[in-house]
Design the sequence.
């Protein structure tokens, strides 16, 4: 059988104008939030291949949401669209006035999905949350997500509230890709052993081009940090700076980036550097010049072990491979 | 001579409460820095105040807390003036309160004088005037408004008909100039983001021409008026404010020399001394200003401040694992090998440099050491002049009564 056929895909669906293409452009094509005004309506399906973490290629189908298209997806295109789906990302517009109709469409999509790919993951994003007043946001979001869950029988659905104007978009997408990375358990085991060795408060792994959080470990002390959305905020901060650097060194945002960043303050030390080809590592360690330098050196050494660990899971097992690789790499880390 | 200061103030309540607040919360450090910067007008004002002071303190019954020599209102003052809806409050909010530019649309129009005290490396006040206020009428006391003036910032909406604004500005300059000849007038030709490049230049030329012609017709040649093209949607307004503030710093040339020496010796491409809170730069080396460098430096401060916010939480279990220099230091190397180096100088200031010279980058240790040396020099510049000021003041007080 054709290998291309076997690669499963990510469907991005939702009503017309709900913001599907906007968020795709921000996350994967280095747009900034105000650039998305330039985008027009998506006609039919836009296919794109997004390389993520090197060996993971997302085959992203951005499906135009106008009613006419929706009907063809559900009728003549049904088999083509809904077979071999790994992930369905369905976007709801929080401002929509026809909630019932939206839900009916969603239900029809879910039915089709159950028919052709019953094992797919389903993520629902309740989008444009910035348009709701701050004090009502949580309540309205919870009502809406309860409604969504009640209409998606047969699937376990993850819902996120999101907005392109703040870090919530990064939180939602980090949650999605987190589920898609093949050898995540290996990576996580490695990272937590490593973090313990270098006495880090927190270690975060970011994907290189999107700056989404791949995974993170924090120590008992690091867990006490009162700011819970810090990972998304970091994605947001670093991506904004990347845009600034690109603008001022006359390159495209895609090729701009950081080689290394060191920050020392009286409360914490931070190291950000390239780890594997596709990831940045972000270390937070307690103050102390010597301990910090040690941690940085160890990170350099651990690079090697880590790329081995990441490569060992190279199967086409998508989304999740068997988690059985031994964690002997972990000890190489801090030689 | 006492008369002009107290009476006919249209905003007594605000002023009073502000005085109390400033006296209580002002730490000694703040004082010594604010007392650094005095124009002639301030010194004369200070004398008024000292004359007036007895009354004030006994009324508040706290004379033992406050030394008698302390000037109460010696902060340089930036006046934001211009016609209504020209963008004065937006500028103040964006520069001094970190408001995102697109939110300024929702600002209400200003109906009374808004006074902001800015506590930073130097304390100063920003007074935001309502456009419709007729401050040249005799019921307003000029000494009150222009008495401790640092700079008069006049905002002109470049997208609107500016003839009225120009006429009013000229009237103001001519009136004020009689009493305070040393006054700095800074004209912000504002909202230029909406204009095309050519039209922008034409407007600029036209406004400059009109103002200087009218002033010289009235017999005021070579007026100290400076012009800036500004917009809150880019860095130009910060740049312009930087220039304005720099004129209020008495040691500017010393600072600039120090920075130039440092950056020559370390092979820096461009170096700025930033005020962290407002992201105004108070001095830079004497090389030409490069907007790209400025933007990157300014954004890098944002990155560090934002990250610090995420990880500077306090907890008894968080302990240091060794010794480390007290001031924050950070550097980043970008994809094209450019290095941005940031070092905290004191509570308010940080030094940010762009380094492109490949040899310089290898000598990171040396750079750090040189920056520390610069830090010592910087602190010396600030403290030394303060001591002199104190001595002078002590001598004056001795001779005075």
Sequence:
């Amino acid at each position: 059988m054709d290998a291309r056929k076997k690669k499963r895909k990510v469907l991005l669906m939702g009503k017309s104008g709900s913001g599907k293409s906007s968020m795709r452009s921000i996350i994967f094509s280095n747009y900034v939030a105000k650039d998305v005004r330039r985008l027009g309506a998506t006609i039919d399906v836009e296919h794109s291949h997004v390389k993520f973490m090197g060996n993971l290629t997302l085959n992203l189908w951005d499906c135009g949401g106008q009613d006419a298209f929706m009907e063809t997806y559900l009728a003549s295109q049904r088999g083509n669209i809904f077979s071999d789906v790994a992930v369905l990302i369905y976007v709801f517009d929080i401002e929509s006035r026809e909630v019932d109709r939206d839900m009916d469409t969603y239900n029809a999509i879910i039915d089709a999905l159950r028919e052709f790919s019953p094992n797919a993951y389903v993520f629902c994003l309740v989008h444009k949350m910035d348009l709701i007043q701050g004090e009502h946001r949580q309540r309205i979001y919870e009502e809406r997500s309860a409604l969504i869950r009640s209409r998606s029988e047969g699937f376990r659905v993850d819902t996120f509230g999101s907005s392109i104007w703040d870090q919530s978009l990064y939180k939602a997408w980090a949650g999605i890709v987190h589920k898609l990375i093949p050898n995540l358990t290996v990576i996580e085991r490695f990272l937590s052993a490593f973090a313990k060795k270098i006495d880090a408060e927190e270690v975060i792994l970011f994907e290189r081009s999107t700056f989404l959080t791949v995974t993170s470990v924090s120590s008992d002390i690091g867990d006490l940090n009162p700011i819970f959305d810090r990972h998304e905020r970091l994605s947001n901060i670093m991506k904004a700076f990347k845009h600034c650097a690109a603008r001022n060194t006359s390159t495209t945002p895609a090729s701009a980036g950081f080689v290394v960043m060191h920050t020392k303050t009286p409360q914490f030390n931070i190291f950000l550097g390239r780890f594997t080809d596709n990831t940045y590592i972000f270390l937070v360690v307690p103050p102390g010049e010597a301990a910090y330098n040690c941690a940085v050196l160890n990170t350099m050494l651990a690079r090697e072990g880590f790329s081995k660990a990441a490569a060992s899971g190279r199967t086409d097992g998508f989304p999740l491979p068997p988690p059985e690789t031994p964690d002997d790499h972990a000890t190489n880390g801090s030689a | 001579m006492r008369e002009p200061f107290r009476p006919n103030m249209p905003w007594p309540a605000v002023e009073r409460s502000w005085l109390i607040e400033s006296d209580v919360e002002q730490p000694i450090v703040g004082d010594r820095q604010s007392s650094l910067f005095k124009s002639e007008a301030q010194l004369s004002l200070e004398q008024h105040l000292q004359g007036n002071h007895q009354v004030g303190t006994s009324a508040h019954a706290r004379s033992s807390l406050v030394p008698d020599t302390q000037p109460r209102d010696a902060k340089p003052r930036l006046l934001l003036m211009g016609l209504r809806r020209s963008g004065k409050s937006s500028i103040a909010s964006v520069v001094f309160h970190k408001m995102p530019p697109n939110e300024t649309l929702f600002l209400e129009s200003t109906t009374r004088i808004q006074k902001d005290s800015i506590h930073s490396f130097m304390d100063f006040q920003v007074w935001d005037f309502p456009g419709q206020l007729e401050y040249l009428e005799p019921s307003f006391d000029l000494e009150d408004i222009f008495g401790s003036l640092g700079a008069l910032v006049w905002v002109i909406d470049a997208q609107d008909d500016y003839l009225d604004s120009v006429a009013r500005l000229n009237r103001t300059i001519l009136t004020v100039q009689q009493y305070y000849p040393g006054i700095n007038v800074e004209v912000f030709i504002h909202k230029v983001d909406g204009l095309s490049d050519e039209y922008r230049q034409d407007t600029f030329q036209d406004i400059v021409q009109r103002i200087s012609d009218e002033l010289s017709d009235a017999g005021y040649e070579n007026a100290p008026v400076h012009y800036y093209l500004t917009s809150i949607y880019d860095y130009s307004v910060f740049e312009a404010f930087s220039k304005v503030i720099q004129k209020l710093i008495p040691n500017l040339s010393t600072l600039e020399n120090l920075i130039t020496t440092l950056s020559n010796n370390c092979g820096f491409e461009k170096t700025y001394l930033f005020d962290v809170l407002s992201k105004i730069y108070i001095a830079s080396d004497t090389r030409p200003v490069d907007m790209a460098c400025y933007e990157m430096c300014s954004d890098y401060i944002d990155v560090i401040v934002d990250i610090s916010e995420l990880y500077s939480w306090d907890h008894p279990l968080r302990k240091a694992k060794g010794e480390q220099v007290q001031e924050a230091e950070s550097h980043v190397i970008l994809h094209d090998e450019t290095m941005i180096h940031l070092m905290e100088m004191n509570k308010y200031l940080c030094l940010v440099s762009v380094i492109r010279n490949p040899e310089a980058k290898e000598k990171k240790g040396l750079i750090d050491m040189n920056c520390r040396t610069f830090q010592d020099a910087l602190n010396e510049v600030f403290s030394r002049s303060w001591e002199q000021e104190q001595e002078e003041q002590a001598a004056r007080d001795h001779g005075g009564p």
Q: What stands out?
A: The interface with chain A takes residues 292-293, 295-296, 299-300, 302-304, 306-313, 315, 317-338 of chain B (CB under 8 Å).
